[in-house]
Amino acid sequence: MFLGEYIHSLDPKGRLTIPARFRTQLADGLVISRGPDPCLVIYPQREWESLATNLSRLPRSQRAARSYNRLLFGGAAEANMDRMGRVLVPSFLREYAAITEDAVVVGVNTVIEVWNPDAWRLIREADSESMDDILGAVGQMGV
After folding, report:
1. Euclidean distance between the first and final Cα of the chain, in Å?
2. pTM, whole model, 2 decimals?
3. What does the alpha-carbon distance between residue 62 and residue 95 come to, in Å, rounded to a whole number?
4. How far is 21 from 2, CA to CA, in rounded Å?
5. What is the pLDDT averaged over residues 63-90?
6. Comparing C-alpha atoms, which of 79, 85, 77, 73 is closest to residue 29?
7. pLDDT digits (tens, 9 = 90+) for 5-20
8. How many CB atoms lie within 10 A of CB 97?
9. CA R_g for the chain
10. Could you give the angle at the alpha carbon of 55 between the alpha carbons of 22 and 65, nearest 5°?
11. How many other CB atoms are there within 10 angstroms of residue 9's CB atom?
12. Residues 111-130, buried b or exposed e (16+ Cβ, 10 A)?
């Protein structure tokens, strides 16, 4: 499980240091993809494979299924950490999330989100202001 919020800088080559406590869960490889919010999502290899299996069951005849697969898989890159726990974030993904120098790395249960610090502050504030509505919606989902 991924927990917590960390601020890390990207080096000049576009490498992001993964927090030490997350590294063992990513040792078998990872996939970085565009998130539905303006952030990146890092999936452990097993989590990505499970998602891919589930999405392969969606009917290709449905436009929403094709579009989601296209956005998710077309905007993804496989990666491995180097010995220092760094991951190269491709430039097209850095541009998507507007990540230039600093990034907020957030543990979100089974995945990691990577945010532009300003975007993270805005979404966190908006979510905090809407907490009652969010809790009500989550409660309706059966959680």
Report:
1. 18
2. 0.91
3. 29
4. 8
5. 95
6. 79
7. 999 999 999 999 999 9
8. 22
9. 16
10. 125
11. 11
12. bbbbbbeebbeeeeeeeeee
Q: Which two tokens stand for residue 8?
A: 């890390």
Please report the sign of the dihedral spanned by the C-alpha atoms of residue 101, residue 107, residue 110, residue 116: negative
Environment class of 52 (CB within 10 Å of its CB; exposed 0-12, middle 13-18, buried 19+):
middle
Domains and CATH numbers, the chain: 2-116 (3.40.1550.20)
For residue 68, give both structure tokens. 């989601």
Q: What DSSP string runs through the chain? A: -EEEEEEEEBPTT-EEEPPGGGGGGGTT-EEEEE-SSSSEEEEEHHHHHHHHHHHHTS-TTSHHHHHHHHHHHHTEEEE---TTSEEE--HHHHHHTT-SSEEEEEEEETEEEEE-HHHHHHHHHHHHHTHHHHHHHHHHTT-
